Automatic annotation (TrEMBL):
Organism lineage string: Bacteria, Pseudomonadati, Pseudomonadota, Gammaproteobacteria, Cellvibrionales
Necessary cofactors: Fe cation
Identification of the protein by name: Rieske domain-containing protein
Classification via Gene3D superfamilies: Naphthalene 1,2-dioxygenase Alpha Subunit, Chain A, domain 1, Rieske [2Fe-2S] iron-sulphur domain
Matches recorded under InterPro entries: Rieske_2Fe-2S, Rieske_2Fe-2S_sf, Ring_hydroxy_dOase_asu_C_dom, Rng_hydr_dOase-A
Amino acid sequence: MPQTTVEEAFSDGMAPRTVTRATLDKRDYISEASRQAEWEGIWTRCWLFSGLVSDLEDSGDYFVYPLGRESVVVLKDEQGDIRAFYNVCQHRGNRIFTSESGSIQHVVCPYHGWRYGLDGLLREIPDEQRFCPEVDRSQRSLKPVKLAVWAGLIWINMDPDAASLEDYLGSIMQNLEPYHFERMVLAKHQTVHLDANWKTVRDNFLEQYHVDFIHPQHASFVDCCNSENVLWPYGHSATMVEGFVTNSRYPTPEETPEHLVMALRSLGMDPAEFTGRVADIRKAVQARKRELGPELGFDYSEFSDSQITDVWQYDIFPNTFMTITAEEVWVYGPRPDATDPDRCYFDKWTISIPREQGCDLKRKLTLNPRLVASIDDERPQHEVFTAADVIAEKHTLTITLDQDIYYLADMQAGMHSRGFECAVLNEDEVRVQHFHDWVEYYVSQH
């Protein structure tokens, strides 16, 4: 059975597909002109995931979101509201925040001591009487950046006239409500510098055509070739892959595959019981999790059966992926390099239900073997490394993402070849086409 694709409009009437199809010309991946056009047409106009509400517990807590040559600080003010500002002093343009995160009482420029409140208002100017004419504090306060909070996730938009995040995400918000990301805890935060254009990275995660070839382990626990795709307006899309199954391209094995054995045992299930009926595992796991969840402190009542066992990947334009299971979510994606179209940064946040709500260590039961984070744990350190570190096995983003990273530099290098002009896509790469169609749309609207 091949992949299927449906198109869903949002209530604002915007159609899922653009009028014209993009060609995926290699110049779009390597040229300075494309980098500049995308900056003006996409990065300064779209909603961007920037971080977690859980990183801003107290008044004065902040983190910095770097994007290209820009820097945005996100902080919690005295009233408990979360705000975003351009990270630049209004005196001489000095960058104020030089650490990626921390806690402060006042915003003070380290260069000349101009002091701002956590609300961004200019409060103090050293030797203020020596400015002539007098400084208009209302005009020299920090410049705000549009911000929205949804499900514990913080989003920013540099376009002050942009539509709301609710309009931008449409029905995606309702689809993801059962997961309650805001109740999850941060298990890992990682950033890797890649020798690839940000779109090269996006393309990789927008199709399963490559899975059989570079992710052979997937054949024993998911069925990527039968995925169900959804296309939405504004360049968003999703795909659903059935979990606790085997790849339907191959005969169903007689014995439970190794990758499913550990998952079954962690749920208190006997893998031997499924000898000769491996196809029954998915339904059995759905029933077992509904039964076991309340015992361990987790409620599956809001979830569909599919959401309990299957892997959903939501693709939020322009650069955010969410790989979602009921107990764990990866929020990840590329940011463009400030000057080089052949490079980008790749960020990954791993959030999950706390082990207190999903594990019973005495009975050796867990709803998901990867649950390691506790409610009481300190925030994990932000790991920053290179693709070479991943290939040398000094760092890992999980075996699947490591395998992807191994190939990305070669993909980017090939874009420079005289022997290649543009991509050709099949029907299973429909989300790649959809993404590039909207890239072209946004760039053309600028």
